[in-house]
Amino acid sequence: MGMRIGYARVSSRGQKLDIQFDRLADCDRVFYEKASGATAKDRPELQKALDYVRD
After folding, report:
1. 3-class DSSP assignment, residue 49
2. Which of 23, 32, 46, 52 is most deeply packed, by most CB within 10 A?
3. d(CA 32, CA 2)
4. Phi, psi (rounded to 5 degrees) for 5
């Protein structure tokens, strides 16, 4: 089986990533960020995750 990659994001600093981290616990690598962003280009960790899986 291949590597499992996860991505978690919350849009405001008051929100917590804990529940998402719990659900992604079996991932080999998790990218995460706390930032709002309407598009993928506004989400640098999402871009890193996509670049990582493309390699």
Report:
1. helix
2. 46
3. 20
4. -115, 135
DSSP 37: -
Report residue 13's pLDDT band, with 50, 70 and 90 as the boundaries.
Answer: confident
Tell whether pTM > 0.85: no
Tokens of 46: 């999402």
Tens of pLDDT, residue by residue over 16-39, are: 999 999 999 999 999 999 877 667
DSSP 29: E
Residue 18: enclosing H or E segment and its boundaries?
helix 18-23
For residue 41, what is the DSSP state? G
Query: Which among 10-14, 22-26, 40-44 has the top mean pLDDT?
Result: 22-26
